[in-house]
Amino acid sequence: MSIPFIILIAVIGIVAVGFLLLFFRFFGLWFRALLSNSYVSMGKIIGMWLRHVNPGIIVDSRIMLSKAGIDIDSDMLETHFLARGDVMKVAWALVAANKANIPLPFQRAAAIDLAGRDVLEAVKTSVNPKVIDCPDSSKGKVTIDAVAKDGIQLKVKARVTVRANLERLVGGATEETIIARVGEGIVTTIGSSESYKSVMENPDLISRRVLEKGLDAGTAFEILSIDIADIDVGDNIGAKLQADQAEADKRRFQAEAEKRRALAQAQEQEMVAKVQENRAKVVLAEAEIPMAIADAFRNGRLGIMDYYRLKNIQADTDMRAAISKSEQ
User: Fold this and answer.
1) What structural domains and CATH numbers belong to the chain?
2) Cα separation of 218 and 240, whole Å?
3) For 85-126, what is each residue's pLDDT tens digit?
4) CB 107 within 8 Å of CB 80
């Protein structure tokens, strides 16, 4: 025998041994699928392994779906696995939906899973409705506060019963939107009430008005009921606002009064300055009198007797002024 022929025989033997090892490795998986009437060829199983797909998950999912009467090709399951989807969870969701007579095609279930939603939880919620607390206490707020028209604050806790809407689960709004819309409806209903007493007497008034708004539009849920779990009376917000307004008015009036007082003081100082100015003018005028008298003497318009008569009048005036001051 030639050397090339021996090498060829060796290569063929190695390849055959490799295929035998792969066959024996996946034989149990292939045989289990065969016995379960969910046949998956050995070639497909080996191909999954070469494409880094877990063949055990694909085969087990196909067996479970087949036993539930759902025929899903292994290629579709493999495609979902390669798209980073959770194949087992999708299979569980399909089985649960089938048992509950809920129409759920594989394509929709896969889309829900790839969208980041828990498809199995969605099916469970569709069968067994879920209760959502409003507001969400995990966010730090425990009540929804609203004020009626009479100024009284009410603190409300509500519970919303919802059921998952599988048709709107992809692209639909989440629980946060439901909580926000219900909170908005509660605030609007209480704010439009004439008195807090009417709300306290009929808490179901809130539920009816909120449900009438169709808050589940565009969401992934269907609201079944809104129940008021607790309602308490809070502060008199109207009285506080009036007190704050009165305090603000008081400060404003005080500022205006202070402004007027400052203006009056400025005017007073201005008048004092004018008085001083006029007194200075009087002093200047009085200083010119002796000069005028001297000029009158020089020009002959004033005689000596006229001068003495003027001095007597001035002395008499000073005496009368002194007597007046002593009497006062």
Assistant:
1) 3-127 (no CATH), 134-237 (3.30.479.30), 288-328 (no CATH)
2) 39
3) 888 999 999 998 888 888 888 888 898 888 888 888 888 888
4) no
